[in-house]
């Protein structure tokens, strides 16, 4: 018998990544379609509407943007290049179902060949469950750091250390 309990998750994953090489602008539409399909499969989601792709209008940073409405909300991406700099992608995944950001990182690296990246995972629960906010950083598909942004005791300890260091520096300057 199916459970009568229903819960919306309200999870968001934001990814900002440098890419090791430029994406092929001439393959913008077929490449984006394959990438989005792989992300949909990973998230176990279906399209809620058509994939929309928009080429950049400011050619000082060529690239393109896309948005894909999904079963539980949307995913969007903004790829751009700055001449002489790293290529970038900025992506947002919003879902009312659970998001496995670790799997998304693997798929993104497979398609994008990511260099250094950072991400934020937010679980915006409005029920009795606690909220979660994690800052994540890595390179390629390797996660180098995870910081709980809501661990206030850790922030308090860090703030005290900073205050003590500043006090010691001021005492040193006063001598």
Descriptive overview:
This protein is of the alpha+beta class and 175 residues long. The chain has one domain (11-150): S-adenosylmethionine decarboxylase, CATH 3.60.90. It has three helices and eight strands. It has an eight-stranded antiparallel sheet, covered by helices on one side. Helix 1 (28-43) runs antiparallel to helix 2. The radius of gyration is 20 Å and the shape is globular. The termini are far apart.
Secondary-structure topology with pairs:
Elements: E1 11-19, H1 28-43, E2 52-55, E3 63-70, E4 73-81, E5 87-95, H2 101-112, E6 114-123, E7 132-139, E8 142-148, H3 152-174
Antiparallel strand pairs: 1-5, 1-6, 2-3, 3-4, 4-5, 6-7, 7-8
User: Alpha-carbon distance between the termini?
Assistant: 76 Å
Strand fraction equals 35-45%
| Poorly predicted ranges | none
Q: In the CATH scheme, what's the topology name? A: S-adenosylmethionine decarboxylase
Give the proportion of residues in helices: 25-40%
List keywords for this structure.
S-adenosylmethionine decarboxylase; 175 residues; eight-stranded antiparallel β-sheet; globular; alpha+beta
């Amino acid at each position: 018998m199916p459970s009568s309990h229903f819960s919306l998750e309200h999870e968001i994953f934001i990814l900002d990544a440098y890419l090791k090489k430029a994406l092929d602008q001439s393959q913008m539409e077929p490449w984006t379609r394959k990438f989005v399909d792989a992300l949909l499969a990973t998230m176990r989601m279906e399209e809620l509407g058509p994939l929309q792709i928009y080429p950049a209008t400011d050619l000082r940073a060529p690239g393109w943007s896309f948005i894909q409405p999904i079963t539980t909300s949307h995913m969007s991406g903004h790829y751009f290049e700055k001449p002489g700099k790293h290529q970038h992608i900025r992506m947002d995944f919003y879902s009312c179902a659970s998001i496995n950001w670790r799997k998304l990182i693997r798929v993104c690296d497979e398609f994008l060949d990511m260099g250094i990246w950072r991400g934020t995972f937010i679980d915006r629960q409005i029920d009795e469950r606690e909220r979660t906010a994690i800052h994540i950083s890595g390179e390629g598909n390797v996660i180098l750091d995870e910081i709980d942004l809501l661990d206030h005791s850790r922030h308090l300890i860090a703030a005290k250390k900073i205050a003590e260091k500043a006090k010691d520096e001021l005492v040193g300057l006063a001598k």
